[in-house]
Amino acid sequence: MGQGVWAQEGAEGLPTSDPHLPTVPRTQEERARVASVTATPDSFMAPEAFETHPGGAGTVTDTGDDTAFTLPPANLPFESKLDFELGNALFAKLWVSSPSSTKASDGLGPLYNARSCQRCHVNDGRGHPPEHPDDDRTSMFLRLSVPAGDAPLTALEAYLAHLDGDDATPRTRPVPGYGTQLQDLSLAGFAPEGRMEIAYEEIPVTLSGGEAASLRKPLYSISNPSFGALPGEVQISPRVANQMIGLGLLEAIPAEDILALADPDDADGDGISGRPNLVWSKRYDQVMLGRFGWKAGEPTVEEQSAAAFHGDIGISSPLFPEPAGDCTVEQVACLNAPNGAGDARGDEIDQTGMDLVTFYARNLGVPERRDLDAPAVLWGKALFHDIGCASCHVPKHVTARLEGTDHAPQSFQLIWPYTDLLLHDMGAGLADDRPEHRATGREWRTAPLWGIGLTARVSGHTTYLHDGRARSLLEAVLWHGGEAEAARDAVVELPPEDRTALIRFLESL
Q: How many CA atoms does the CB half-sphere of 73 hold within 13 Å?
């Protein structure tokens, strides 16, 4: 068990340290300023100060086209812009199979979901489910697991068992023969693991004022499994690619600020009981607060990026040195295939390359707000708070004060991501029944809302939620259940003009 596992606990037994951040402790005066500036406004008659800049001083001017998510923050130092461009090139690079004459780009697969990061995150935006049998599946995949049974506890599982006792989330393991996600692409001579299939059932919803909506409920299956029948207890979780903006700012919110928002026992009686996911950091060899991914399954931008290289592309790195990616011990041909490791790079992407990709991902700027002073948007914002949406989609945070040029764009910024980064029970309708670390099969991280109104322009579609089932922002709201059920019901009962104003507010983010 790592040296830091127990040492960095806070009063509630939770990890409060931020080993990834060169943090300067806040003074009492700064704490008071942060509390004041992040408080709920007394009035919604006008925009708040600095609200037009959701990404703080790094907020970028809206380009008006599909490149709105691709820009470095406005406060990125000039001397760092080359690193941003080099990271962008690696993010977009197409990997090839081994052996290859292009030694800097080989190591793909043999089983994979995409050939580059950019293939999943087109224009650094969000992915989408296939809309017909021949549609592209690259920006979506299925996470897989099975119950852990009597497998020995990992260091993280031991920590969670100590912390949560009998309430600890059930443990999981990779699926024999398939690993932790379904790879539906493969190199020549290898069979892909299978094919994700989706069927939809339409569910009508009656709204107030004579309006109606229809929700599409997905049913997932795997056709053409190549490594034997999947076990009956397999746990399947569909995931579309998340948008990339503002990741470094989310990474820079102090863990103690996020943990202060947690209310696992609903002590205040508001029906909201968010709690943190806790994950194992490969970089720091300790338990850390989870921040990234649909269930907050990774602690830092670097580890999220390295995990994607490993699972999605089959590329090894210092944190994930297995050159066969997610291949399991049963997939002998995959494990024995030629790979790109062992040359001058060491791993298929070395630490220098990972640092550049991480720098790029950490520094994608957040576009400025639009129409925030429009009367309908202001009224929609008031409704957003009044019906309880802001209880989970917490509008404002202030990042830690950080030392050094590398973190300068993220240092001590007032940001507006509309998330608490905590896990919430979203009800049976959105449940995937697949635990992930501390997250149960009904819990999801509160998705940041900044930039959501630009989805159509940046990504070319308007599908939302973890599997893209919602075809509009209204459908996404109507899928909310569990802790969000009261807020959803309030939206159903709103007069049509109020519902329209709420959506106008979301579109302005």
A: 32
